[in-house]
Design brief:
The complex is a heterodimer.
Chain A (H helix, E strand, L loop, with lengths): L25 H4 L1 H22 L10 H8 L1 H34 L5 H12 L4 H11 L4 H10 L12 H25 L3 H9 L4 H30 L2 H6 L7 H11 L3 H32 L5 H9 L3
Helix pairs in contact in A: 2-13, 3-13, 4-8, 4-10, 5-8, 8-10, 9-10, 10-13, 12-13
Chain B lengths: L5 H30 L1 E3 L6 E3 L2 H6 L2 H34 L2 H16 L2 H11 L1 E2 L2 E2 L4 H26 L2 H9 L4 H30 L2 H6 L7 H10 L3 H31 L1
Antiparallel strand pairs in B: 1-2, 3-4
Classes of the chains: A mainly alpha, B mainly alpha.
Chain lengths: 312, 265
């Protein structure tokens, strides 16, 4: 910064200086990276679609689609994915709202540290949660030991770890920070006077939350919720590490079909279905909430995307 | 603020403390403890030992760790170059071109990483570009996945940049290349360092796309952690995860020194 002088030229800049004579149009500079991105991001997506409509001999056929879509395995995976995603999103929204409200409105020493700790979770690989759950809630875990200590050796935990509920709990644990972050940002710019006026007029805490706070932070809540819904639909590491035979989600099905049983056409069908699902949600998130977010006080689109990438 | 009575405050804070302990502290703490635990059959681990950590940086673990670090650096550099270029060019381009470029860059993070991996596996296992079975397909997968992040960080940095500096440079007769190298990029350095940091952090922890495309000769640490965990050795898996986090933190620390040096300028 010190190398720059303050931008105060003695005379206003002449307009002709803006357009240097030998200048490649700005749009042309975008071509090299755009071509690379088309080749390495766009093209693979097209080949997935192409693979799904060909049979083993390379002839055009919709056989993979009809077999994959009518198979019970696919339908079960789809339902399981939706169940886990919706369950985790609701859980993360409830838990995240509570954490954000306390952090914003019930000041206590160390609140900043807790907020930063919650942010740290965003940068961790998701499979860490499943590893931790093995020790915490597994058949030889901490919770089992505590239960045995309290109720005697006969008491055993249900096998939560390898059940859909276990995956939902793990995903709530991992994705709650994605709700806390935008919500805290929205709460921090909420005018405190509004709350105090409402309270001084006799409104109880729950009424203040319902009628004053909730409408104000609804965009942030919706943005955080749809982000978590997208991320939980796409989540792979947590489910893979669980290793449960009966918890098969779409990403895990793509992995087993594509790499374990080497059936690329059928993996491609599942992948295409998943892409349609995810991109639909992503467009809703980006074009619905990001635009509204720019107007209200929720974090900018860039920050939202940062959070979005942070898990993968 | 919302709670005026002392009791309600205490109750809410107690619930909050329990939730934070269960959701944030317990997972992280458990993995750290398991990495140094000899046995863990009770409520607390028994027999502290460094054996798992030693094993985690043994021949197999060390090889994977080096693969992860090299992949993160190569993919980070590639995505920084392409991503910065794309972000700056898109920023100057007319609206539709800008939106198309940014949307394409963000595509890999909107779909599951396994799908990105599957796409690369299918597209680059046949001519014209054969990358399947080489380390380059892993590097490519990581570069594609972190590209979205470098692009959005640099774009955010560009939006915050005061255009007066570059306008002043241009009005004084500086050519575009000079404006870019002497004004815009130096001003963007903090954003670039932030983008590089996250690119490295994300690449180090990436699992979904890697597991689809990796050849046996180029296995990253998260994939090794999965195989270890899958054969039931949760202690070694935890120790390897701790090593992964420690090395990532070290890389980020090195990058943050670059960032603070950039801030001094």
């Amino acid at each position: 910064m010190t190398t720059l002088t303050a931008p105060a030229p003695p005379q206003p800049p002449a307009p002709r200086a803006e357009r240097a004579p030998l200048r490649i149009p700005a749009a042309a500079w975008v071509l090299p990276p755009l071509l690379l991105i088309l080749g390495f991001v766009g093209w693979p997506m097209v080949t997935v679609l192409g693979e799904s409509v060909h049979d083993e001999n390379g002839a055009l056929s919709l056989a993979s689609w009809s077999t994959a879509l009518t198979s019970a395995e696919f339908r079960n995976a789809l339902l399981r994915t939706a169940q886990i995603a919706v369950g985790s999103t609701i859980g993360a929204l409830v838990l995240g709202s509570f954490l954000a409200l306390v952090l914003a409105f019930v000041p206590f020493p160390g609140a900043g540290l807790v907020a930063r700790l919650i942010d740290t979770v965003l940068a961790l690989p998701s499979f860490l949660i499943t590893l931790a759950f093995t020790f915490l809630y597994g058949s030889a875990g901490v919770l089992q030991a505590v239960l045995t200590g309290l109720a005697g050796p006969g008491a055993t935990l249900p096998p939560i770890l390898t059940s859909p509920l276990g995956v939902i709990l793990a995903e709530i644990t991992f994705f709650t920070p994605f709700v806390v972050r935008p919500l805290l940002a929205a709460l921090s710019v909420l005018p405190r006077e509004q709350l105090e006026v409402a309270a001084s007029l006799g409104a109880g805490p729950s009424r203040v939350l319902r009628t004053v706070v909730f409408p104000e932070v609804l965009p942030a809540l919706a943005a955080g919720g749809s982000l978590v819904l997208l991320l939980t639909l796409n989540e792979f590491g947590i489910v893979l590490f669980t290793g449960a035979k009966d918890v098969i989600t779409l990403p895990v099905l793509i992995y087993t079909r594509g790499v374990v049983s080497l059936d690329l056409p059928s993996a491609a069908v599942v992948a295409t279905a998943q892409v349609v699902l995810s991109l639909g949600l992503y467009s809703a998130y980006r074009f619905g909430f990001a635009r509204r977010g720019a107007r209200s006080a929720t974090p900018r689109e860039g920050a939202g995307n940062a959070a979005l990438v942070a898990h993968q | 603020m919302l709670l005026w009575s002392r009791t309600s405050r205490t109750v809410v804070l107690a619930v909050f403390a329990v939730l934070v302990a269960v959701v944030v502290v317990a997972p992280l703490g458990t993995v750290l403890l398991a990495a140094v635990a000899g046995r863990w059959t009770g409520a607390l681990p028994a027999e502290l030992t460094g054996q798992h950590l030693v094993e985690a940086v043994g021949p197999e673990g060390l090889a994977s760790l080096l693969v992860s670090v090299q992949t993160a650096l190569l993919a980070g550099i590639a995505s920084m170059v392409i991503g910065t270029w794309a972000a700056i060019a898109a920023h100057d381009a007319p609206g539709p071109v800008r939106r198309l470029t940014l949307a394409l860059c963000h595509l890999p993070i909107a779909v599951p990483s396994v799908v990105v991996g599957l796409g690369l596996l299918i597209a680059f296992n046949r001519p014209p570009l054969l990358l399947g079975g080489t380390r380059w397909i892993v590097v490519l997968a990581h570069a594609v996945l972190v590209l979205a992040f470098t692009v959005s960080t640099v774009t955010a940095g560009l939006d915050r940049l005061d255009p007066a500096y570059e306008q002043a440079a241009r009005s004084l007769g500086a050519r575009e290349a000079r404006v870019l190298l002497r004004v815009r990029l130096p001003l963007l350095l903090p954003s670039l360092a932030a983008a590089a940091g996250l690119a490295v952090a994300l690449s180090m922890g990436e699992l979904g796309a890697t597991i689809m495309v990796y050849p046996p000769s180029w296995r990253t640490l998260p994939v090794t952690i999965f195989t270890v965990s899958d054969r039931g050795d949760a202690f070694l898996a935890s120790a390897s995860t701790v090593v992964l986090l420690a090395v990532t933190a070290l890389l980020l620390f090195a990058l943050s020194r670059v960032r603070s040096r950039a801030a001094l300028r």
